[in-house]
Amino acid sequence: MSARPPAKGTYRSGIRAQQAEATRRAVLTAASDLFAARGYAGTSIDAIAEAAGVSRSTVFTAAGAKPWLLKTAYDQALIGDDRRVPLADRPESRDMQALDDGADIIAAYADILARIVAGVSALYEVVRTAADTDTDVAALWADIGRQRREGARRVVALLVAAGALTPRLTPERAADVITVYNDPGLHRHLVGDRDWTYEDFRDWLARTLHHELLT
What we know:
Oligomer: single chain
């Protein structure tokens, strides 16, 4: 006996959910592109709506107010897609967590970090600039700083567990060092302004972090 087809109401509900998600993605893509091109202050909800091909009210219902749009766009740029899987639970992060050699940990982290900052550097600058004049964005900026610090501490913990961290540094000082180098502004300057390639940047990160943390 063949399976019973889904009820019409269930089918329609699924279609509506797909349409809502497509609208949300269009709004977020438009917002991300405009923020990167015009900055936070230079991007209006009306401009986002026009670029996404939706009404002003739909922007709010589909994705939220302007500060939330910036936060969501930043988060998606950080992890590279809109899947709700934290960065620490991604396969590349889990692979790094399974390593027990300091040099391998640094190489894996440099590869992950280079890809992250390449995706997020433009919006990072938008957040940094807008944080001076907008309290909601200032809160986002502070949260980004905490995330960078937490990420640095996780890498240090791996190095400590592997017995690889240089005796010159305490774990907190090592986290300080990583927090300097996980600043997306470095990518913006070296790749965006100085014309380094992605590979140049990734390999420089690996060499520099190896020197600072292992030797």
